[in-house]
Write a structure and sequence with these properties.
Helix content is 61%, strand content 0%. The chain is mainly alpha-helical. The two termini are 40 Å apart.
Amino acid sequence: MQEYLEKIRSVQNNLLCFLDDLKNAEENYQNLLAILEDLHIHDDKNELNSFLRLIIKISNNYHRSSNFFDKISQILQYLKADIQKYFSNHEIFNIAKSNKRILLYFTEEKLITFDEYIVQKITSEKYVSMLYPQYFTPEIQPFINEKWFSQYFKEFDGIFKDKYNIEKYLSENFYDQRKIGENDAKICELIRKDQIKEFIIFINTNNYDIKTTLSPSIYETNNFLLKQKFKSITLIEYAAFFGSIQIFKYLQNEGINLTPSLWFYAIHGLNPEIIQILEDKHIE
């Protein structure tokens, strides 16, 4: 048992190393594959299931580097044939359902086909609150009829004039934006990239209130942010979440209060300067 736990720990460490290290990506990737081979992951459904769930957990909660999902996709592509071999359509969905971005990957790779069971799931209250139906509009389009609309799509009534052709209301960049998987608002993009000069120009030009909270985006795939439902996420919290130290300091200097909730965002953001500021200011 101890030997097995050490092996699993090694899998996790090598996976995180691959996701974090930008300089030695190929070497780290080969190290990860060697450990997976040692686990006989191609021949053991249980090991594959455990590893896929580890990927989902990390994807849900880990700080994302610029090519985070490219690396996740690379791993999943390596395992694609095994996933098809061992898991049914609904099993794959149930493994990935907590992560919109990976669910999209499985859909695009034809590992998941949307059916009534899946549509019922993602139009239930839990997933509606995280904007799954809007994110997967093209996939649920074939299932929209009077019965489905009245039962599951009441929130669309009044938004879409043509109930049975929702897809035509999608924005031109819908498919690109949902692959990016981030809030598509311009101010959010500036914060994520920590573009302080452009950020200041944007808020001054648009008379933007820096005390405002963010509006929801159907493209958002960060689970922590989705679960906040964007009811109270401030610009400084969003900056802390992405480790954007320049914009964080600017907002602080402009009189934005530092609150205890920032700790959750700062820990995810992994920026030691932001964490140090919270400590120095004795934010509990």
